[in-house]
Amino acid sequence: MGRLNLVVAVLLMLSAISLVTSRYQARQTFVELEQARTIARGHEVDWRQLQLERSELSRNARIDRIARERLQMVSIVPDRTAYINQAPSVPTVPQEGDRK
How far apart are CA 63 and CA 56, in angstroms? Predict the structure, then answer.
């Protein structure tokens, strides 16, 4: 009977140690999960900021302003537009007298 009590006591101690270890690992895993969620939220904020910057940088008004200021470009207006009319090129057939 004494040996049986000793074996049960040892098994009980091993079970308690196992329980404490598993609880500790669960807490550690939860802490890591919360840290990963915090990082993910930070990435989401960064992504939204980048999307906002991209939309701001691609606005037509900004592009027009930069083209005018930095490149000294002007808008197209009909009175400053030159149209070139080119006659369609028609292949000519050489005549017999044209040969050299």
Answer: 10
Predicted TM-score (pTM) of the model is 0.51
- Report yes or no: 68 and 74 within 8 Å, Cβ to Cβ: yes
Beta carbons within 8 Å of 74's beta carbon, 6+ residues apart:
68, 80
From 74, 52, 78, select the one nearest 64 (Cα to Cα): 74
31-42 pLDDT, tens digit per residue, is 999 999 999 999
Q: Report the alpha-carbon distance of residue 77 to residue 95 in Å, rounded.
A: 47
CA distance 53 to 46: 10
CB 67 within 8 A of CB 73: yes
